User: Fold this.
Amino acid sequence: MKNIFKLAVSAVAILFVIAACSKDQKVVKQLADGKWKVTDLSYDGISQPDSTYADDVYEFETCKVKNEDCGGTWTTIDPLKGEVVTPFTYSISDKGETITINLDILGVPSTTVADIVESSDDKFVWSTTEDGTLVETTIEKI
Assistant:
């Protein structure tokens, strides 16, 4: 009887892990299907349409979330250098609720851990707090 109970508990635990991974993988699949343009950036709820990051483009690569971080590129326009393409890695976790983006800017590693506010096939929104300011980034498929 104890073995049946242990087997049932193990099966339930495995189902929870599979469900969490499938939600994470669903978000990766949504992101990896095309290029995404920054359409809104807000600070403490105030939209900044003329932000230096307006019109930046993100590309997310497809991968299996359980194997390793996924890759991607962030393209921005530098007034002095022109178009700058920066590679990054990202991961989706917490049942599709969190995105972590790791990139290297001018030799300085940077990690952003953000809450996923909205995730669909054509719109993705994440928010994070930076120096006490709530920053919300909206990207839309182009």
Notes: The chain has one domain: 2-141.
